[in-house]
Design goal:
The chain has about 300 residues and is α/β, with parallel strands linked by helices. It is built from eleven helices and 15 strands. The strands form four sheets. Strands 1, 4, 5, 6, 7 and 13 form a six-stranded mixed sheet that branches.
Amino acid sequence: MKPYAFILIIVMLVVSVSSHAGEIRRIRERGVITVSLNRDYPPFSMEKAGKVFGLDVDLAHLLADILNVKVRFIRPDTYDQQIPTLLAGESDIIMAAMTRTVERGLKVNFSTPYFEVSQAALVRRDRVPAGADAYFDLMAIDGLRLGVKTGTTHEAFARQLFPTDAIKGYPTTTAAATAVVEGEVDAMVADSPFVQVWRKNHVQHYQKVSALLAPVTREFYAFAIRQGDPDFLNWLNLFVDQIRTDGTLDLLTYEYFEQTVCTGDKMDSGEKLNRAQFLRNRFIAEKQAMIEQRRSTFQGRGDSYE
């Protein structure tokens, strides 16, 4: 065998072994996983005093704990940089409230969905049609000026419905919401979780801004990784299945959507519950609701207990 042929075989074997070593193994050997987050997207990713927090942040910490590694966060300046950053090897996973789409699926592998959302909107009350409660009611507004976060499914969906010159892009959903308050645009569109939490945390703008939250679409958030590693994808799907079935995701949803109020300079929350306490409270609440329903049924029958 010629020497160059032998060298070529060795190189091919090394590359083959390296390519099949698996992303999980490489992450654990490095001792750190790099997670790409959404920039300023309550309640999934927020920043306070230089520290990031939110539902996706908590899930990233949990994932890292299971892998027994540290977590490092990056936040691309614009959302359309998320996938290029992943493919360039600058992150190991996208945990950024990313909607699964077939177009994105040509570039990355998506995990099992972990959150369902709908398109929603914030709109100035002096421009909202009477009885409006859903995204599509925006189409009845003449001369609408619409804010969107660039590089997102919100922008793509809006461009299918509204004239190009009616749409103005912003780097974050928060910036688009601020533009509504300041009258720079008439409305902004985003996924329902952002609109729901923004409304709750900005009661001072209630008389000026209305939330349109009636469901009109079904979309799903998922985590994204580079293609070509079925073991990492299978493990990630198992991770999602576990947090959905063991109460972890329900607890975080309760904390960030029901219990926590984020204001401009502080975050206030009620008593912190662990997962077991949350599940116990939910179990009791469901039992109480069942008893009340039975009582209502009995009372409706006119039963006498004399």
